[in-house]
Amino acid sequence: MHAKAAVAPARAPAQRSLTVSGDPVVDLREAIRGKLGIVLGVTPETARPRDWFVATALALRDRIAETGLSKATQIPHKRVYYLSLEFLIGRLMSDALNNLGLTETVREALNELGIDLDAVQEAEPDAALGNGGLGRLAACFMESMASLSIPAIGYGIRYDHGLFRQSFKDGWQQEAPETWLAEGNPWEFARREATYKIGFGGGVTMSASGDGIARRWQPAETVLAVAHDVPVVGWRGKQVNRLRLWKAESEAPVDLARFNGGDHVGAVSERMRAEAISRVLYPSDASAEGQELRLRQEYFFTSASLQDLVARHRNERGDLRSLPDHAAIQLNDTHPAIAVPELMRILTDDHGLSWEDAWHVTTNTLHYTNHTLLPEALETWPVELMERLLPRHMQIIYLINWMHLEEQGKSGKGDAAHLASVSLIDESHGRRVRMGHLAFHGARRVNGVSALHTDLMRSTVFSDLHALDSDKIVNKTNGITFRRWLHTANPGLTKLAVEAVGEGVLDNPELLTGLDKFAQDASFVARYRAVRRERKEALTAIVADRTGIDLDPDALFDVQVKRIHEYKRQLLNVIETVALYQAIKAEPHRNWTPRVKIFGGKAAPSYVQAKLIIKLAADVARAVNDDPEVAGRLKVVFLPNYSVSLAEAIIPAADLSEQISTAGLEASGTGNMKFALNGALTVGTLDGANIEIRDHVGADNIFIFGLDAAGVIARKAVPGYARAAIEASPRLAAALDMIASGRFSPEEPGRFRPLTDDLRHRDPYLLTADFDDYWRTQRAIDAAWRDSTTWWAKAIHNTARMAWFSSDRSMREYADEIWRVRLD
User: Fold this and answer.
1) Which Enzyme Commission numbers does its entry carry (predicted)?
2) How far apart are CA 596 and CA 530, in angstroms?
3) CB neighbours (10 Å) of residue 317?
4) For the segment 135-146, what is each residue's pLDDT rounded down to a tens digit?
5) Lower CB count within 10 Å: N or C terminus of the chain?
6) Is residue 296 among the annotated active site residues?
7) SS3 state at 224
8) Which of 568, 569, 595, 715 is catalytic?
9) 585 is catalytic
């Protein structure tokens, strides 16, 4: 649909300075005081911590806006547009303060007002804009693009409630709305001038046009997408990009006729239907209505984003045929894959480009990042739903597919099996649109996110498409922003690194390699250990506050925090915990290495098996923690409501990082990078980026176990492999028997039988095959922990050798090899 309001021309920045006294502390102090009184209408004596946070954020936002406005009249040669359904940005104040170099200035300004900066930062809620690694990666990439001065706009949805707030009741996950926007978001700028109409349903009309037929979509329903911009500040504040989030609104907030007729609820039904689009991240698709809402969400933000960038390009450059020269659009997973037919529709229907010109523009502007090899995570949509909700797009998809298959026939590849494998429509189990195939076909480049993942993309899910265009798939291993995951999350370690190798390490993480030579320096090791001890004590306080469980900071902190999914194998960790519990009970006087097992992560509301794994972890924790025979040797904790801010507390305190997914299924992982950067040793499979981490930190400084990807495929081909593995492992059999017997659920003895029965009869993620090697590796880790000199040398080597995993490196590679954006 046409934009309600086109992108306004850039205006000259206001010629003023925020500096008044010349003393930055005084200026910020008075700015904060002014925001508190004039904007919020409260006095310092009556202000809540939330008020102080908002006032401080607004004072900082003024400075950020001034930096952004100073470049507002500069039209870059090329922009990157990053489309993602998730942006897990967490709290923004610490990022802004760190990147602007204002942390201590603001701390002093607030101190003069009698306020503690840490308390102000705690009052900021995590932005509920994502779920896990996909969203956190997008946030890291946005920060790195700003730090590298790559002009970029991120596009997503402004969720009212995000995923959900997790709590536990008797060990069961409970979901409640995340109310992060209840009191507004002081960082954002509402941009009602950037409002676009998004259509759904209706039909397509045809009319004669020149020497052809023009098709015009007539939607039955229209929803408004209203822009809200969040600034993204680069390192040292030299560039400010923006994250543009779309809020869904109805064209008519209330049907007055129905309201005045007494139908007060029905009068706002259309408004509620429209606003539901930006209400919740990942609504359950267990129902037909939920599935439709997900598709509405994906089309809503993709269409608004494309309309916005097309309008901007027309305003700045005019001819849409030059779009590939000045815009690179990155599709973060298949959620925005509808961009392929939508951009074609905008170019042909709305702006009159020929099909050939539009296809050239589309396939030279779009790029697609794949994040999964799991078939259930590669989106497909029922053709019936697409035809009903997006009829014009299905026409375009049919035409793209027809031309694609015709080309196969002409090149001698017209056999039925080949055409079925490369078709955009899967007809094997009902007719469904393959969004991964669509994104692949419409993109100039398709990238995986680790070396193994990319190789598997070429040989498995996209093997037939790869054979048609062997240059299209490239690898771009993920990275993390060190500004957030080292500087902000671990200031003690950052200070130590600066003292050891110089301040240049703040700008160039490659200088971290200089820490290698300190791995045997007793004085440096002692200080490194002291930093870890401090972070462990801080986490111990958080655990006690949120769970009531007291931890020993001298114990080995063994951490697995990530989205709960069977392939990530939290269950393997829990079973090993049960086996360890049994071993300690059998030999209580043995010299056991004290260990704390820390879990965190959310299960999708409709994912029954994952929620049962959480419950098992909780029940095992209750039994272990209440048993005096294992006191001081083993504790188990499941922290509720895992988030970015909680990760910032957990990761610097971890001694051991659990990265134990079934080999060949984790695309990359970025938590593994964050832990290793902060000196935690990894126990993991040869999966995702674990392989590249091993290559960089050295095989002696990581604990690898289990089958590799090829071994997984071979083992799955063996009939009855799970049963055979259990029979061969008395320890595994005993742990499963204890779980199945109801030892951890006496009030419901059969509660966990679905988990144990599945392992005995199917075990699709090969927990049984990897268990014994996992157990042996964990006992080797116990021994390594007792040799503290060797352990801390390994930890320091991990920190020193992780520089390559910076998202700055990732973004440079994307800019050079995918987007073709020049870096200054």
Assistant:
1) 2.4.1.1
2) 19
3) 15
4) 999 999 999 999
5) C
6) no
7) strand
8) 568
9) no
